Amino acid sequence: MTAERRAAEFDAADPLAGYRERFTLPEGVIYLDGNSLGALPKTTPEVLRCVVKKEWGEGLIRSWNSAGWFEAAGRVGAKIAPLVGAAPQEVIACDSTSVNLFKLIAAALQMCPGRKVILSESGNFPTDLYMIAGLEAQGLATRRLAERERLIDALDSDVALLLLTHVHYKTGAMHDMAALTRAAHEAGALVLWDLSHSTGAVPVDLNGASVDFAVGCGYKYLCGGPGAPAFAFVAERHHPSLSQPLTGWFGHAAPFAFSDDYAPAPGIEQLLCGTSPVLGLAALEVGVDLIAEIGVGRLHQKSQALSEFFLQSLDAQGAVLECVSPPDSGARGSQLSFRHPEAYAICQALIARGVIGDFRDPDVLRLGFAPAYLSFADIAAAAGHLAAVLASGEWQRPAFSQRTTVT
Ligand SMILES: Cc1ncc(COP(=O)(O)O)c(C=O)c1O
Ligand SMILES: Nc1c(O)cccc1C(=O)C[C@H](N)C(=O)O
What we know:
The chain is α/β, with parallel strands linked by helices. It folds into 2 domains: 3-31 and 295-401, Aspartate Aminotransferase, domain 1, CATH 3.90.1150.10; 45-294, Aspartate Aminotransferase, domain 2, CATH 3.40.640.10. The protein is 35% helix and 14% strand. It has 12 helices and 15 strands. The protein has helices at 3-13, 44-56, 63-66, 72-80, 97-111, 126-137, 177-186, 278-294, 296-316, 343-352, 376-392, 398-401; strands at 23-24, 30-31, 40-41, 91-94, 117-121, 142-146, 159-165, 190-194, 213-216, 230-234, 322-323, 335-339, 355-356, 358-360, 364-368. It has a 7-stranded mixed sheet, sandwiched between helices. A 4-stranded antiparallel sheet has the order 11-12-15-14, covered by helices on one side. Helix 4 (72-80) packs parallel to helix 8, helix 5 (97-111) crosses helix 6 and helix 9 (296-316) packs parallel to helix 11. It binds pyridoxal-5'-phosphate (PLP) and (2S)-2-amino-4-(2-amino-3-hydroxyphenyl)-4-oxobutanoic acid (3DJ). Residues 36, 169, 407 line the site of (2S)-2-amino-4-(2-amino-3-hydroxyphenyl)-4-oxobutanoic acid (3DJ).
């Protein structure tokens, strides 16, 4: 049976097939980059129009109270919570992932007096490593990096915090969250997970694993739009001792008391710093509602089926490409990454054919399979295009190797 025929059968049996209609996707494009910037939910423009025209245009400052702007960060956080195995009062939507990393790394250092080492994985997403380096430059932390396989050996009595990205941005490899959290706790350290490539794509059980802290992006699988607010999780048991350094007025226990002295809000609101980005939160809320409606369990199931079908389709066409993602779909996130010395040119050749994936320096072609809006027909077609690009050598056209894009 051809890949197209099999795809048609899979699509007919796919319980999530109808959700594709809930997103805006351009004609002629197969979008395999939802792991970097999620697609636009169809209702987002109308929701934003209403927030801008009615809430801002007519409600003006009154909308902080009457339109729920004050509560938006906590409300959206509470909706993200079940997607990551947290309680509603443990998650807040705010700032960027990078800023949330800074706040929580610093908070962890405060909670572990006498320990300064932040342990992470070499090759982790750069911002995670840079935020540790920034605190190191302030004399507050010592960065320690270990290879993935040596992380547990690198845990000792100097380590305050183990900071890891659950699903690796480049390879899609997924850590065993429960095992690593347990090992860190046994060494007396706290744990902070970056869930940017996990949330809305793979099941996460923060409280099941007794995780201390977590952060994640709003613009990837949560479809909150470019620059969407990120989120932060702090386990409720740590709320009484939480102390983060960006002590802005929105994190104050009583912001409108306008006191000279800072007093942190008692709960997760302490993580707020400045005024919440109302428009960004409104767009993020649409994406989160939609992903929550579909359900992470069903999304994960479909994501595994999509990536397995992609590999089978590629194989059936005789295409040979080194896959650097774990072969077991249960051990990876919602992406497949392939190594090739000319990955940049191959990626550009695919984009010219309408298949949008991305390239990660120096040699990785990364294809994301956002299950909420991709069909099996998309997957069969994308595999066909990739096989054709490789077989024809069209990636060798000079235009495809000129580094004109940065993403
Ligand atoms: C694992 C990971 N963490 C953090 C970020 C960056 O987050 P932000 O741009 O919100 O600071 C990204 C992607 O940009 C990422 O892939
Ligand atoms: N945040 C991004 C941006 O502002 C522009 C381009 C790409 C991004 C990304 O999200 C990159 C992404 N985190 C990655 O996994 O590579």
